[in-house]
Amino acid sequence: MILQTVFPDTYIQAALKHRGFKVGRSKVPKSAASTFGKRHFYKIVLSIGNVTVLYGEHLLKLSGAYLFVSNPYVPYSVEIISEVQTGYSCLFTEEFIQPARLVESLRKSVLFDRSMIPSYRLSDVQCERISDLFEKMITEETSGYENKDDIMRLYISMLLHETIKMRPNDERVLPVDASYRITRQFLESLESQFPVENLNRSINLHTPQDFANHLGIHVNSLNRAIKKATGKSTNILIANRITTEAKALLELTDWSISEIAYALGFEYPNYFSTFMKKNTGETPRFYRKS
Length: 290
Description:
This protein has helices at residues 9-18, 94-97, 102-105, 124-141, 148-165, 178-191, 208-215, 219-230, 234-252, 257-263, 269-280, 284-289; strands at 21-36, 41-55, 58-70, 76-93, 119-121, 173-174. By secondary structure, the chain is α+β, with helices and mostly antiparallel strands. It has 2 domains: 9-174, Jelly Rolls (Sandwich); 178-289, Arc Repressor Mutant, subunit A (Orthogonal Bundle), CATH 1.10.10.60. Strands 1, 2, 3, 4, 5 and 6 form a 6-stranded antiparallel β-sheet that branches. Helix 9 crosses helix 11 (269-280).
């Protein structure tokens, strides 16, 4: 299988806004939980690796090859357990699929039924067949055919029909206790502040106490729940997400370092510099130059 680095969220959002569709190969290293709250796109992923997904009230342990389908309405988070996760991903908006009568023909699929478990274990034969569909989509994506979007809709339909043929294995669904529910709420609140797109609106939840107040629980309860669910501290998860956003803003905008600092909720630019030095080993200025 040919692999390439997954597109950063900023590029994906731009592609979806421009066209309503994006497909690509993926290679994702081991990482802490990343959350996907309210979105405006659907997602079909062929995942090969060891992954934990907190999907609504369900905790899914996916080991091996799986097809994962998500809609914009159910929040979820993903933690990569194996050293690397490979496969493919296809993202598309509701506007993109409307012309294809997809809504009528695939009402039984997990794409529209929020109560269904969204993951499907694949045999070697199924994995090969679905990988071939993704490869055809990638090839079509680079073609100059003016009606290629219609072909993409047919491929999406074929992928979803594969899910209708399969039934999820209920043994992979684990009960979610209070720690996971609190962690999911925390991750949703954390992610809701991003991406930062407006200099006039800075993030306002920066500390475990801020999030505890926002969720209406004691900060000790929040910290215990997150440590139990993720193995990491609340401070580390907050710092990791702010660092990711800071890197994106330094790389992809022409905002000054002071403007980025204020947008990320730092009272003074030197606080931002200290934060970046601690979490990346580089100052914002040096990181932008490099």
